[in-house]
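Morning, I've got a small favour to ask if you have a moment. I'm working through a protein record and want to make sense of it properly. The fold is given in discrete form, as structure tokens running alongside the sequence. Can you walk me through what the tokens say about the fold? Thanks so much in advance, here it is:
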Amino acid sequence: MENGAKSVLEKYRKMRDFARTSEPQGEKSRSSVKVKSQLRFVIQKHAARRLHYDFRLELDGVLLSWAVPKGLPLDPSEKHLAVRTEDHPLEYRNFEGIIPAPGYGAGEVIIWDQGTYEPILHGEPQKKRNRIEAEKLVRQALRDGKITFFLNGEKLKGEWALVRLKNKETDWLVIKHKDAFADGSLSEKTTEQSVVSGLTLDDIKKGRKSHKPIQPRSMTADKGIKKPFPRFAPPMLATLADSPFNKTGWFFEPKLDGIRALTYCHDGKVELLSRT
């Protein structure tokens, strides 16, 4: 399957000059992906020659890709054109930035939405199926020319279908199903901003940096050494000094009026101790 993913990316690579573009080449292996993990999707807003949305579904180590000029419809009464493009590497779901001219697809790109998706079988999202079973369903649906799926994204949630037009290899329609999420509207802020950086296409074009706080990476703390419970630790006491100073192990804070106290919780008992 790894070799298959690499071979289907040949077209993607031939269309790009990686000496100029920062787009991923697609050399990473997907062997570390857990079988129980869900399939992923991404929607990238792309200011190429014509503004459009790139809709990508993970399958068999690559991202199936469609260019959707109007984006995914939110109203079940609308059907939007989706043009199948070359498969992209999995790493592309993290790509946000500028594709330099005169390269293929030159323009700004933001990650407009991202999340996981589940294939729908007989009207029911297949939440309990593992990755291998889910991919098998999507693979068959792709061959049949109709992929029905549930998106669990940061912006979009609910059911959609991709339907290939008769006698057309690349032209599809994307259709919103009637469900609890079919309200047909998104706020302007939601429409314009990246879910990763909080930036807009214009921000990317002007070289602005992300103003969205970076989520700290989870870290495992070292195991502590078991020691006897302390009998008493005196609460802090403010002391006078002639002038401020810099000294390792010291820091300053405003002295607030009130009572400094320490709470001891041990062996089912609670004690509150303070200076008097």
